[in-house]
Amino acid sequence: MHVHLENTTSKPRPFWLTPELVDAARSSNAALPGEVRFTVGRDLENFAGSLSTATVLVTSSGVICDPRFPRGDLAAAAPNLRFIHLIDAGVEDVMPLNWLPANVQLVNNSGVHVEKAREFTIMSLLALNARLPEIVWHQQRAQWDQVFTPLIRGKSLLVIGLGDMGQAAVAAGHTLGMKVFGVRRSGMSVPGVERVYLPGQLHEAVELADFIVIATPLTSGTRNLVSRSVLEATKQSAALLNIGRADVLDHGALVDLLRNGRLSGAILDVLPQEPLPSSSELWACPNLIINPHVGADDPTTYMTETMRLLFANLQQHLTGRPLQNIVDRMTEY
């Protein structure tokens, strides 16, 4: 079996796939039941030759979206390919999957972010409760304006999206002694969540929340889910954190509600354009902290956890068992 790892070197260095990473994974994971050959490439140099014999491709969505990637006829370019492991959690950039042959599965990196996401959410909820975005806004203007805030314990948290990232936010809420509610497409209950709302009940759900965490993937069904009308239905002085996907949120409405004081603060770890251009009105928005999409990524563990998941799936594939983290073509995650 041939496993090929293809890099985009424009990604930050801690997220490169390297021969050293492969060697470390071989030594720290259980031996694979069969002969496996690994190759590593970069920036699609000599990519066609590697792809032609690959059984498994490990790469980022940036490679899949590159014009040189053979999305038009992947079956011919990679006749032996059986699954692609994306080192991203979000898969919206490669949707729809009409380019993916029927006999090839796509898996993502869901779950790799969980521990760091939980820590980041704890930090963010405490910061929002302490009105830190507002305090920073005053500091930037040399304004002495004391803002007194109560304990966070007992306040209500609404988590929109209850997958791996959402459940990290649920855990963060429980750590802080909060009452936790959730929104989920299926409406199915989740341990630790007092009530699960359907997306169609979002206006009702946000009326109860002191804090809202967006943790849902971006799909055709979640785009602009947290719309102007949803934001206008929030409890007075609620605060918001987005650790999911930017296009789930109406940013123009967010700016308006932060400026008029309806929302007390917001922290965005995902932005409508990354890097965020200097012309964006978000930079000058009061009571908003922009975190440049680093909240859930631990550079010391991200790639080792990625390789752990890859090796687990190689074991599954070689022994004829279902893979973990298969992306569903219908639900888009």
TrEMBL record:
| This protein's UniProt keywords | NAD, Oxidoreductase
Write one Pfam family the protein is assigned to: 2-Hacid_dh_C
Q: Which residues form a coiled coil?
A: none
Residues in D-isomer specific 2-hydroxyacid dehydrogenase NAD-binding domain copies: 123-295
Name of the protein in its database record: D-2-hydroxyacid dehydrogenase
- What organism is this sequence from? Paraburkholderia kirstenboschensis
